Amino acid sequence: MTEKKIAPSEITPESEYLNRRNFMRLGLLAGSAVATGVVYRSFNPVPPPPVIVAEIGSDVGSSGFSTAESPNTFEEITNYNNFYEFSTSKAGVARPAQNLVTRPWTVEVGGLVQKPKTFDIDQLLRFPQEERVYRFRCVEAWSMVIPWVGFPLKLLLDQVEPLGTAQYVAFETQYDPKVMQSSFSAGIDFPYVEGLRIDEAMHPLAILATGLYGKQMPNQNGAPVRLVVPWKYGFKSIKSIVKITLTDKMPPTTWNISAPSEYGFYSNVNPNVDHPRWSQGSERRIGEDLTMRKTEMFNGYGDQVASLYAGMDLKKDY
Amino acid sequence: MNDVKFNKIFISLNALIPLAFLGYDGWFGQLSANPVEFFLRTTGVLTLVFLIVTLSVTPLRKAFGWNGLIKYRRMLGLYAFFYGVVHLVTYSIFDKRLDISAIAGDVWQRPFIAIGMLAFAMLVPLAATSTNGMIKRLGGKNWTKLHKLTYPAAILGVIHFWMIVKSDIFYPVLFGLVLAVLLAYRLVPKAKPTVQTSSS
């Protein structure tokens, strides 16, 4: 330490020298403790204040597809999710996502359709909105129950009249480098792209969600409009959609491009097909810190969707 | 109080600050919506941080002649072990409810768990032989040889970290690079003792 230079004890009375030295040491301890605390906090910030979003406004109907399980809190849903465009930390998404500009917003729907059309977000909000309380299972083995508000994707697709040759639906997230991080920082390609087979897209469980808890979609959850396909791992439910394209080829999907052996095109929730690096047999429901739940085939939506995959080997087509 | 004693207090205080924050945030429910995952990740990263700091003592002595640092190396290593224990205990209680067969199944099915366990197992004999008495009993040479287990433990620790992330490999890569530099530096021949060794 530096006191050898500063305090020549030969000329200072010993008691005073010791006092001064103790004082400096105390300062050093306190100062370093504060510095260490600041470093710790910069890596582990406190949660941001709750986001304030407008109510949906129009009448929101209910749906027989909703689960009776009790939903996670608004705070949990809005402060813990993946949105790699903003952060690779689930607790770190909410803050930077507030910079996302969601008005004006349009969704361009085209490709193999009779009537290509660009929808303004306000037009999408005029589709009959209903609440869908769905289980949400992340590929990282955590899950939530989320009271989405939205409408069946089928209603939108019907309006553009898909051609008979259309077999897949491709989706694209907005990529705005002014408010989002680079592909390099996130480790995946942007814009984020996803896809469904057309029969999956037309399934009544598949919705375009415009909000949750009766409010408009918070930015961090994929404002202003996102896909929700509850029987698939969460990353299939693409956020902040700007483009929907009907196609005759299986479209590329972001996580599949990133690691094809870990994330397949279908990515149905399947406890029998483990992720190569972790088990998919169980999950932690957010809010249940002491227990893990068994993961259900198709996230518990097998009665509705299993027939879509009749005759397929889901171990191969994971 | 002499300088060595003071420096040890200095290190301990700063080493325990992350634990204090974890406790504080846990108490006030600020450990994210998934506190178990947060606690696991943070204590895991802290284990690696202290392993890296411990392994940087030798290169710093070589590069700058700060030989006084050796007095604090065992202590730094023990803090790595301490956070490793907290990490493993958290996993065993909150992820596995102390179910030994479930833990064994996990080790068998999930390679990254097996690698983490192996890394931890390597740290156990090091912590157990960290007393002056054990150094005497083993003899300096044997003790030094045994404690080279820190190298594979740190390497496995970084691999363990790398295996649980998806595409956000920044920190595992960073830890890997720093570790590579620290280990490579051990191959550099020892510099001649310098005059300014008293700077610690």
In short:
The complex is a heterodimer of chains A (318) and B (200). Helices cover 23% and strands 20% of the residues of chain A. By secondary structure, chain A is of the alpha+beta class.
Layout: helices, strands, pairs:
The complex is a heterodimer of chains A (318) and B (200).
Chain A: H1 3-6, H2 14-43, H3 74-79, H4 94-97, E1 106-111, E2 117-120, H5 121-125, E3 130-137, E4 142-152, H6 153-160, E5 168-173, H7 183-186, E6 193-197, H8 198-201, E7 207-212, E8 215-216, E9 226-228, E10 241-247, H9 254-258, E11 282-285, E12 293-294, H10 302-305
Chain B: H1 3-27, H2 35-55, H3 57-64, H4 73-95, H5 100-109, H6 111-128, H7 132-138, H8 140-146, H9 150-164, H10 170-185
Helix pairs in contact in B: 1-2, 2-4, 2-9, 2-10, 4-6, 5-6, 6-9, 7-8, 9-10
Mean pLDDT of chain B: 92
Number of helices of chain B: 10
Which percent range fits the helix content of chain A?
10-25%
Radius of gyration of chain A: 25 Å
What string gives the helices and strands of chain A in order? HHHHEEHEEHEHEHEEEEHEEH
Q: Return the structural class of chain B.
A: mainly alpha
How many individual helices of chain A?
Answer: 10
The helix-strand sequence of chain B is HHHHHHHHHH
Which quaternary structure do these chains form? heterodimer
Strand content of chain B: under 5%
Largest interface comes to: A-B, 43 and 36 residues
The percentage helix of chain B is over 70%
Write down how many β-strands of chain A occur, each being a DSSP E stretch of 2 or more residues. 12
- Judged by helices, strands and strand pairing, the structural class of chain A is alpha+beta
| Largest sheet entry of chain B | none
Rounded to the nearest angstrom, the distance between the terminal CA atoms of chain A is 60 Å
DSSP E strands of chain B, number? 0
- Low-confidence parts of chain A: none
Globular, elongated, flat, extended or rod-shaped: what is the shape of chain B?
Answer: globular
